[in-house]
């Protein structure tokens, strides 16, 4: 496996810009909802017709800081994945990669360069990292039978 050095000038040096990709797709599908480079949401609702549910009542999973978390997730990463041959098992023959890093940053970097090439990702949760799962995990609610 040869590794090519990638500098900041290469398009591959950044993760995908999800926000821009989504905007470009909207422009392709609904060019009429853009005015002066911005989305006219009223026009978008009109184009979508009855599909739009603009009622305020709906179920939602939310928390304080959710909007900021989404913004961080959509920000392109300029990080670099570096192979760690000594941490890997049978590096030359398995085709498996061991990647250690911040979960979100690593996933953003994998998204573009490994799109449709990854069969499985195991993420060690940020709590109890590197230790065995020793907690009671066979909980049953007595009310449900």
UniProtKB/TrEMBL annotation:
Keywords linked to the UniProt accession: Methyltransferase, Transferase
Keyword presence, Repeat: no
GO BP of this protein: methylation
PROSITE patterns: N6_MTASE (PS00092)
InterPro entries: DNA_methylase_N6_adenine_CS, SAM-dependent_MTases_sf
Leader sequence segment: none
One GO MF term attached to the UniProt entry: nucleic acid binding
Name of the protein: Uncharacterized protein
Lineage, broadest ranks: Bacteria, Pseudomonadati, Pseudomonadota, Gammaproteobacteria, Enterobacterales
């Amino acid at each position: 496996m040869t590794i090519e050095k990638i500098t900041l000038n290469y398009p591959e040096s950044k993760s995908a810009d999800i926000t821009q990709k989504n905007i470009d797709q909207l422009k392709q599908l609904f060019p009429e909802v853009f005015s002066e480079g911005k989305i006219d949401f009223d026009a978008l609702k009109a184009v979508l017709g009855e599909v739009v549910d603009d009622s305020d009542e709906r179920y939602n999973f939310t928390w304080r800081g959710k909007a900021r978390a989404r913004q961080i997730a959509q920000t392109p990463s300029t990080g670099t994945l570096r192979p760690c041959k000594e941490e890997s098992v049978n590096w030359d023959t398995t085709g498996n990669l061991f990647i250690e890093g911040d979960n979100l940053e690593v996933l953003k970097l994998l998204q573009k360069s490994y799109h449709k090439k990854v069969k499985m990702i195991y993420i060690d949760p940020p709590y109890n990292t590197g230790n065995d799962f020793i907690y009671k995990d066979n909980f049953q609610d007595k009310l449900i039978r």
